[in-house]
Design brief:
mainly alpha; Arc Repressor Mutant, subunit A; 151 residues; 5% strand; 7 helices; single chain; two-stranded antiparallel sheet
Length: 151
């Protein structure tokens, strides 16, 4: 079974959390940790990588945190997955796995085609799509709870 890594899921959840709960304010990593239960050791490194990739923007200062670098409809899940895969590839350099001719000429090409199909599908899913899905399932955004219309 194909299974995404924890770091990949955490990265997608973090970007979605920022898009869904931010409003106009930056989201601090401790807020993401509180809401999503993402261990901070994964989160900080991943958020910094997403900033370097131009998906997020870091905001400095006492009320700083992270915000989306672009509109949420312009950020795809596939883009986030590529950033995390590059990060994970840097952590462990996979050695060439010995393989038979069947593995090299049949299994690996099949796997490559499957990966391309999956990435194509992930590229078609935007963070905005996920925000709409979260809203439709009844997940309450903290930004709506913070709004105060008193005069």
């Amino acid at each position: 079974m194909l299974r995404p890594s924890k770091k990949m899921l955490f990265a997608i959840e973090a970007v979605l959390d920022i898009a869904y709960h931010a409003g106009g304010e930056p989201v601090q990593s401790r807020e993401i940790t509180r809401r999503q239960g993402i261990p901070r050791r994964y989160l900080e490194q991943t958020l910094q990588q997403l900033v370097r990739a131009g998906i997020l923007m870091g905001v400095r200062g006492p009320r700083g945190g992270y915000r989306l670098a672009r509109e949420r409809r312009r950020i795809s899940v596939g883009e986030i997955v590529r950033v995390v895969r590059a990060l994970e590839a840097g952590e462990e350099a996979p050695e060439e796995i010995p393989s038979s001719d069947l593995g090299k000429q049949v299994i690996r090409p099949m796997w490559s085609v499957l990966q391309e199909e999956i990435m194509g599908r992930l590229d078609s899913i935007s963070i905005d799509d996920l925000c709409l899905q979260a809203h439709q399932t009844g997940i309450v955004s903290e930004v709506t709870q913070k709004m105060d219309f008193t005069i």
